[in-house]
Amino acid sequence: MDTNSSKFSIHHVVLFPFMSKGHIIPILNLARLLLRRGMAVTMFTTTGNRPFISESLADTSVCIIDIPFPQNAPEIPPGVESTDLLPSMSLFFSFCKATKQMQPMVEEKLQGLVQAQPVSFMVSDGFLWWTLESATKLGLPRLVFSGMNQFVSCVSRAVFEDRLLDGAESDDELITVTRFPWIKVTRNDFNTVMPNPNGPTMEVFIDQVKSMTNSLGFIVNSFYELEKVYIDNWNSEKIPKVWCVGPLCLAEPELEPQKKPFWIQGCSVLYVAFGSQAEVSSKQLQQIAKGLQESKANFLWVLRKKESESILDEGFEEKVKGRGIVVKQWVDQRQILKYQCIEGFLSHCGWNSALESICYGVPILAWPMIAEQALNARMVVEEIKVGLRVDSTCNGMKPGFVKWDGLMKMLKELMEGEMGKQVRKRVKEVAELAKMAMADSDGSSWQTLDMLINELCNKKQ
Ligand code: UDP
């Protein structure tokens, strides 16, 4: 049953997620929330991403429209329809650029939809900048789905508008963010946020930013109680408003209670995973393996396929038998984090992973790698205080190469130490706030989504 209200049943919403798991998964849950308001939902995707979406939404009435991904896109290997599968993340913005070739077909399908049943609004990912033009042609309000939290958006905006990085003498010099003086950042924190300013893909980045600022507002996977200061700050400015409607993972249906799966052994288990995009060198993987091995911790380590090949021949799994397990396939991370025995998460701090960890009360050992993860790590460690960082000695949140003994020290601290105790206590408190935010009718996120729908649906009538 995916509806509990008919308040908005005459309304129809189009969702269009970007092609990576970290952007698709939250939008699947947004679809569920809209269905629960009684709305009709159509989701656009590419043919290659359709099976994952269809399977995830099999119990719902979401209509899925898939468009073939361009096969002749410069630099993108044929068959790659998700940034998770790119041979290198340096192709990320080329991938974004390639999506624009889908525009004519998306518009043809949208036209057909609008004729069959009026569409109230469209929510599309910030990386799909050209969808603003498509929505505008058909007279549809377009909201941007932002994959970031408001702390990161506000800090980035303040740093760029006030040109704070220009004054830094080195990449790891701490600079005070004048609009939020309790926050300090380094140039390192921003090094992987933007493409090379002189490279060919900078143009796409600028188009994306322009399209966001000309859209109606942002849907953000976060909640008011987590980052009031930044949400209020943003919404007090004359810029497109943010609507925090999360944590979206809490809209996922509860699966049948399962027995603890065989691969989780013992209690007090550390979960280790670096998301779907980060590239970890084999030298670094070997240090992680040694750190886990020497720490004697119980652990569950999820590796991407490419990575697993580089450590297997070392006989690592044999050495940690009985207390550690390596999984070499896609797992359902939210289900893992829900197990009581998972008591720590060594994470790259992708925003979804960080938020999921918070929602399930699991403290984080932050190891940011790419994109805006260094800023997420600052938020997790310094702002919300639900985690520690992997290299406690570095000022910058981008620790670079970490040796096994440093890693072992911090993971022991997280799992057994005094600082670990404090962040564990705090994360459980924040998890409660997250649940309350998502509560039907009363929760702040529930109410925010209702307000947004009311505003947009009334506008269209
Ligand atoms: N995820 C998962 N299984 C995996 C790896 C990732 O379910 O084996 C999910 C994870 O729960 C999260 C998303 O994929 O919802 C990853 O998003 P995140 O923002 O954490 O990182 P990204 O992959 O975008 O770097």
From TrEMBL:
Q: Which PROSITE patterns match?
A: UDPGT
EC number assigned by the record: 2.4.1.-
Pfam families annotated for this entry? Answer: UDPGT
Keyword vocabulary terms for this entry: Glycosyltransferase, Transferase
Q: Name one GO molecular function term.
A: UDP-glucosyltransferase activity
The entry's family comment says: Belongs to the UDP-glycosyltransferase family.
Annotated PANTHER family: GLYCOSYLTRANSFERASE (PTHR48047)
The protein here is known as: Glycosyltransferase
Lineage, highest ranks first: Eukaryota, Viridiplantae, Streptophyta, Embryophyta, Tracheophyta
